[in-house]
Amino acid sequence: MTFxxxxxxxxxxxxxxxxxxxxxxxxYGEHARWELLxxxxxxxxxxxxxxxxxxxxxxxxxxxxxxxxxxxxxxxCDFEWTGGKVFRFHHEIKKLDGTLAAExxxxxxxxxxxxxxxIANPDEHFRNLAERPELLGL
Length: 138
Fold this sequence. Notes:
Layout: E1 3-8, H1 22-39, H2 44-49, E2 52-63, E3 72-81, E4 86-95, E5 100-112, E6 117-118, H3 122-129
Antiparallel strand pairs: 1-3, 2-5, 3-4, 4-5, 5-6
């Protein structure tokens, strides 16, 4: 089951060529990640109260088709659990007609906020916090 969130491309998010600014793609992905966590029952304050914070270790974007102001898109978010300290998020940003605008892959971890180190088995931490772990692929 792929989770998606709708977003309208706003004028102030555009670059000088009238395209969606490259940094905004990252923001769209982050918005989709937090919305997925919230839908699974892990609001941001609940996550932080657990003593763990999410950290992005790498983010890669493949631009496929331009986005301009007024475009309506859906941003998908899927977890990929790797069995180690890191995991991946996969995002697709698509126009309403199905045109793929961008693909984003994020390598992330869950950091112990006191020790400032990645925790082992982040999937277990997410599973314990979530009310709907199946949304997270757990």
